[in-house]
Design a protein that fits this description.
mainly beta; two-stranded antiparallel ribbon; 3 helices; 7 strands; elongated
């Protein structure tokens, strides 16, 4: 059993403190696209509120990937506070108004509820959803990453090149902006700083 799977008898009236860590690959549902992650740490309290189980805490991991500027390795930390509500029983049939909603959640009061039927509460699905929703649009090895030279491809974090010293009309051609130069033939490139 995964550390994110909680047997219901373990949840007492005082709640259950959870401090669990799992490899990111163990959370990925079958058929989901691969997402490179470090270990996933979940910490918080799971409490029993009658027919509902409420988890309140935070989730941490690290996205592993490639820097979008220099193509080197990049690690992006992720931390989010979470509040998950799990309801024991089967998911109600969606009304006509919400026909396109997910089968395991309802939006009747603005809170997404996950439904489960057995005596084990599986937090992996909710954790995976938070991680996927938090995936960064851009990953950088550092905020000051200089990237690659657009002319010769040199990694500007490791060395420099002479390509950037040619700041003339040829630079416009290299950047694909030659069409703008033709639209404004009287524009002096040296006056761009004004």
């Amino acid at each position: 059993m995964n550390v994110f799977q909680i047997p219901l008898p373990a949840v007492t009236d005082e709640g259950l403190a959870i401090d669990a860590e799992s490899p990111g690959a163990d959370l990925r549902p079958e058929g989901a696209a691969e997402l490179l992650l470090g270990s996933v740490h979940l910490k918080g309290t799971l409490s029993n509120d009658g027919d509902e189980f409420i988890f309140n805490g935070h989730l941490e991991t690290t996205y592993l990937g490639q820097c979008d500027r220099c193509l080197g390795p990049a690690e992006t930390p992720f931390r989010t506070d979470v509040l998950w509500i799990f309801v024991q029983g089967t998911s109600p049939q969606p009304s006509e108004e919400f026909e396109d909603d997910e089968e395991d959640a309802t939006l009747d009061d603005g809170v997404i509820r996950a439904y489960f039927e057995d005596n084990i509460l599986d937090l992996r699905g909710a954790a995976w959803e938070e991680i996927v929703l938090g995936t960064p649009l851009k990953q950088l090895c550092s905020e000051t990453c200089a990237g690659l030279c657009p002319v010769c491809g040199t990694n500007l974090n490791e060395s420099s090149c002479d390509c950037r010293t040619a700041e003339d009309s040829e630079t416009l051609e290299n950047k694909g902006l030659q069409g703008l130069k033709d639209l404004y033939p009287d524009m002096n490139p040296d006056r761009l700083e004004d």
